[in-house]
Design brief:
Chain A is mainly α. Chain A has helices spanning about 10-40, 45-60, 65-75, 85-90, 140-155, 160-170, 175-190, 195-210, 215-220, 225-235, 240-290, 295-315, 320-345, 350-375, 400-425, 425-435, 435-440, 445-470, 480-495, 500-520, 520-540, and strands spanning about 5, 95-100, 105, 115-120, 125-130, 135, 390-395, 395-400. In chain A, the strands form two sheets. A five-stranded antiparallel β-sheet of chain A has the order 5-4-3-2-6. Chain A has a three-stranded antiparallel β-sheet with strand order 1-7-8. In chain A, a hairpin with a 2-residue loop joins strand 7 and strand 8 (about 395-400). Chain B is an all-alpha fold. In chain B, about 70% of the residues lie in helices and about 0% in strands. Chain B has helices at about 5-15, 20-40, 50-80, 85-105, 115-140, 145-165, 190-215, 220-230, 230-235, 240-265, 275-290, 295-315, 320-335, 340-345; strands at about 180-185, 185. A two-stranded antiparallel sheet of chain B has the order 1-2. In chain B, helix 3 runs antiparallel to helix 10 (about 240-265), helix 7 (about 190-215) crosses helix 8 (about 220-230) and helix 11 packs across helix 13 (about 320-335). The longest helix of chain B is centred in the N-terminal third of the chain and has 27 residues, at about 50-80. The radius of gyration of chain B is 21 Å and the shape is globular. The N and C termini of chain B lie far apart (about 50 Å). Classes of the chains: A mainly alpha, B mainly alpha. The interface between A and B is large, with 51 and 54 residues.
Chain lengths: ~550, ~375
């Protein structure tokens, strides 16, 4: 089952519960208008129905939690139209009684010292109350579970399929002897198969709790956390049921472990794709010119700042801004690259160590420039809606959309570069100069022009990396610095000027890092990777895919 | 006396330990120490009095000069650019920091050994030395050279920075080691100690300068310069290039370690930021500005850049990175021989020095840097 969840602001379940409530209230509202129309002629019944809610709420005013639970049950069983709202307020600890009086209130906001309150029966504004004037009904954990079950079965009996489905999901682990019968009845009445499945899981879980081993079959391979949490204590015993539950639990655990691995792989690949984007430009320039561009990280930063600036220019249209930022980041960073090549690197030809130092100086200047022009503070680039949230594949596996997009973007950029290198004249010349500069020049390749264009291309790709990065982290003057050492490792690991090597190296470093992280922590994982690469180039100084044949 | 004899004698004198620049530099160092000593002894009311804070600052410059010597020894005379020499500096500093901490509160585990000065002094030399030995053995054996070597040294210091930031290392985490009160039973806060540390740093610079000078005029030094200029050729002649490199690299790391050890009591803190790649690469620009492959150039460069830094970070903190960055670019493009190059040109002997020529990787095509 595939579901897209938006995780903006509040927790998704909370949001869902609220919208559910709204739907229900509207449904009841329409019922109410019908009954009100029918009851117009009979003033007595109206008085009676007004007295009844009062009595229902009175029953809650007791110190005994069991009695309070029964009162909540009575509310749920009654046909008072406010009952969902009452139970929700009770659950949230927002239902209370006037200290000296008979009125009941719902607290709409309990964050401050003075609470805005509404009348619990009429929902009319009742001014404000405080801790001194309103006695809030207190509940304990058992009661909380019971109320949750009540609320879920309430929403199950009405609403559209989506709200019923989420209600059924919430019932998992909440079914008790009190509501099992009603849930069973609802399950038999339910038309939607997916809702029925969820109810079956909830009921099976309840039956297992009651000691029914047969019900375990329904739970086999279920990934819901609550199923696991409920099964764990059952499996801890030493009865026959426990052994079977243990087996089911083992199956669930191994299935979860697989999805966890898939999740780690995904995170690794997405981290790796950033590395690839950052390193591939470096790999090209290093390959063609033998030049280490220490300002490469700052070109990434320029790409990210371009994204931010375009977004500032187009407020409210993050999607369009991002679409424009892709060519924009490429062009701006590329222009910086060409400028660096023309003004500095050109004059340091054949002196790689000096080039390294000069470009390092440029990186310091660019960083300070950004700090002075913008600010030393980090900037936030808002992602368009379609990049927020996650692609929820199942309970155990959800892929964040922005990371997925970066991964795809990286592959697209890689494919584009590969095609450029393979099928264009520039690519041909670049490869020729990479292999043997002197020979290429002898064959009529204008090496200096190739240098300039390659450098611009590498810088442009760095800009693209910056655009991608702006969707994952905040944009700041130090953005590039964090990636420079890693990108060099990728280049060294993958082999100089080798596109495939860079791809494989970047992705594997990303994955290795992610795999190590839970074991040894982020810092140690990084150290292990660093040491690993240092040891690796002992064996293969030319990277994973050493160039075949003779190079000059 | 024939013409050839004459040339040979000149050639020999050129390589002698006591050249004019050696004498001059030694005299300048000793003179500077004496002058500071005398000016510091003057009564505080005197206009020429040099305060303890200034003496301490000058002592810090001396440790930086020591570090610059270490970098120049391998970059200038061996042609390998280490972007991770701050790591050796910091290791020496941490060894000293542990010793200083052990004076006030006993340390746990193996660190308790560091409370003895001889052990600590040994650690100051051995910690950077052993790291350089292992790291150098691994890299030189597989002929990692040129920019590859630079990048890997940078990765090394980066990894160490991450490691020392961890509290589990027992090195104070990101705060590092601080709270130093006593050294060899004397209070660190006293003016006498400040002057003593200043003198110790100055003498260390002098000794390291003579050591480097002795190395560079020795056979080892000549092979190393040959390696710098044409590594493959030296190897084909039959020299073990990797051994030469390893020897100089270890010596250089130890000098850096001593520099760190002298730096820590004068500054009062050592923390993982000393491992930051930026610091190591700054050291390289000191050497580049002063003049690579001249020992006095390295000393001069360290002094000049750090004095500039002290003045500018106080006056215009925002401008400092512009200026430092600008120095990197301008020195590499316009002053490839640094201040020392300007001085020798000014004295009309720009082409006299053997070590001034053949700027290492300079004449070697880029692709040959990556020798398999």
């Amino acid at each position: 089952m595939i579901k897209i969840e938006h995780s903006a602001g509040r927790s998704p379940t909370r949001l869902l519960a609220h919208s559910l409530l709204l739907c229900l209230l509207m449904a009841w509202g329409s019922c109410l208008s019908q009954t009100a129309a029918a009851a117009l002629g009979e003033p007595q019944t109206e008085a009676l129905s007004k007295a009844e809610p009062q009595a229902l709420l009175e029953a809650l005013d007791t110190g005994n939690f069991r009695a309070k639970g029964d009162a909540a049950q009575a509310i749920a069983d009654s046909d008072a139209e406010q009952k969902t709202r009452w139970l929700q307020a009770l659950l949230d600890g927002r239902l209370g009684k006037e200290r000296r009086g008979e009125r009941f209130y719902i607290i709409t906001d309990d964050s401050g010292r003075e609470w805005p309150i509404i009348d619990a029966i009429t929902f009319e504004d009742a001014g404000s109350g405080t801790r001194r004037t309103v006695d809030v009904f207190r509940i304990n954990n058992d009661l909380r579970t019971r109320i949750r079950g009540l609320l879920a079965s309430l929403s199950l009996s009405a609403g559209d399929e989506a709200s019923r489905l989420s209600a059924a999901k919430r019932l998992i682990g909440e079914i008790s002897a009190e509501n099992a019968a009603s849930v069973r009845k609802m399950r038999d009445d339910e038309k939607s198969p997916s809702v029925r499945d969820q109810l079956d899981i909830g009921l099976a879980l309840f039956e297992v709790q009651q000691g029914d081993a047969k019900a375990l079959d329904t739970l086999r391979g279920n990934l819901d956390t609550r199923v696991r949490n409920t099964l764990a204590p059952i499996a801890a015993g030493d009865s026959a049921l426990a052994a079977e539950a243990q087996a089911v639990l083992g199956g669930i655990e191994s299935k979860r472990a697989w999805y966890d691995r898939a999740q780690t792989l995904f995170f690794g690949l997405s981290a790796g794709s950033i590395l690839v984007l950052a390193a591939i430009g470096l790999a090209i320039t290093f390959g063609v010119m033998g030049v280490i561009n220490m300002a490469h990280g700052e070109l990434i930063m320029i790409g990210a700042y371009t994204t931010w600036m375009i977004q500032q220019a187009l407020p409210g249209q993050p999607g369009l801004a991002l679409a424009l930022a892709i060519p924009g980041g490429f062009l701006v960073a590329g222009a910086f690259g060409v400028a660096i090549e023309r003004t500095v690197i050109r004059f340091l030809k054949g002196r790689p160590l000096e080039t390294l130092l000069a470009t390092f100086g440029l990186s310091l200047i660019l960083q300070q420039l950004v700090r002075s022009v913008f600010s030393p503070l980090n900037r936030r680039v808002t992602s368009p809606d379609w990049l927020q949230g996650a692609w929820q594949i199942n309970e155990a596996l959800s892929l964040t959309l922005n990371r997925l997009a970066v991964l795809l973007f990286c592959l697209v950029v890689f494919a584009g570069l590969w095609a450029l290198m393979r099928h264009t004249r520039l690519g041909l010349e670049v490869r020729a100069v990479t292999q043997n500069r002197a020979m290429a020049r002898a064959m009529g390749v204008r090496a200096t022009r190739v240098d300039m264009l390659t450098f611009g291309l590498g810088a442009g790709v760095a800009g693209l990396a910056g655009v991608a990065l702006s969707q994952l982290t905040n944009v700041g003057p130090n953005l590039g610095q964090g990636y420079i050492v890693d990108s060099f490792l990728v280049v060294v690991f993958g082999g100089v000027g080798n596109l495939w090597g860079t791809l494989v190296a970047g992705m594997s470093l990303g994955v290795i890092n992610q795999v190590l992280q839970p074991w040894v922590g982020a810092v140690l994982a990084k150290i292990i990777v660093l040491v690993g690469v240092i040891l690796f180039i002992q064996k293969r100084p030319q990277g994973i895919f050493p160039p075949k044949g003779r190079t000059s | 006396m024939t013409m050839t004899d004459n040339l040979e004698r000149r050639d020999r004198s050129r390589q002698a330990f006591l050249s004019r620049s050696t004498l001059f530099t030694s005299a300048a160092l000793i003179g500077a120490m004496l002058v500071v000593l005398i000016l510091n002894a003057l009564p505080a009311s005197s206009a020429l009095h040099v305060s303890g804070a200034t003496v301490s600052l000058l002592g810090k410059y001396f440790t930086y000069m020591l570090l610059a010597l270490a970098v120049d020894l391998i970059w200038g005379y061996l042609g390998i650019l280490s972007l991770g020499h701050g790591a050796f500096f910091a290791l020496g500093g941490y060894a000293m920091g542990l010793y200083l901490n052990a004076q006030t509160s006993p340390l746990a585990g193996w660190q308790s050994l560091m409370s003895h000065f001889p052990v600590a002094a040994l650690a100051v030399l051995l910690a950077p030395g052993l790291l350089a030995l292992v790291f150098g053995w691994l890299t030189f054996r597989s002929r990692v050279t040129g920019v590859y070597f630079s990048i890997i040294t940078q990765a090394l210091t980066f990894a160490l920075m991450l490691a020392f930031n961890r509290n589990e290392m027992g090195m104070g985490g990101s705060t590092g080691l601080t709270r130093f009160y006593e050294l060899l039973g004397f209070s660190l806060a006293s003016e006498g100690m400040t002057v003593a540390l200043f003198l110790a740093s100055g003498i260390a610079v002098l000794l390291a300068f003579w050591l480097c000078r002795a190395i560079t005029v020795s056979r080892l030094g000549r092979v190393s310069m040959a390696t710098r200029d044409a590594e493959a050729r030296v190897r084909f002649i039959g020299y073990r290039v990797d051994h030469v490199k390893l020897a100089l690299f270890v010596v250089s790391a130890m000098i850096a370690g001593v520099a760190g050890a002298l730096y820590v009591p004068q500054v009062g803190i050592i923390n993982p930021s000393t491992f930051a790649p930026l610091f190591s690469i700054e050291v390289v620009v000191w050497v580049a500005l002063g003049g690579r492959a001249t020992l006095y150039g390295a000393l001069l460069g360290a002094l000049a850049v750090n004095y500039l830094k002290t003045v500018l970070t106080g006056a215009m903190p925002d401008a400092w990175l512009f200026i430092l960055g600008g120095l990197f670019v301008l020195v590499t493009m316009l002053l490839p021989q640094g201040i020392a190059g300007v001085i020798s040109k000014w004295r009309g002997e720009g082409h006299r020095r053997g070590e001034g020529k053949g700027r290492g990787s300079g004449e070697v095509p880029a692709r040959q840097e990556v020798s398999a």
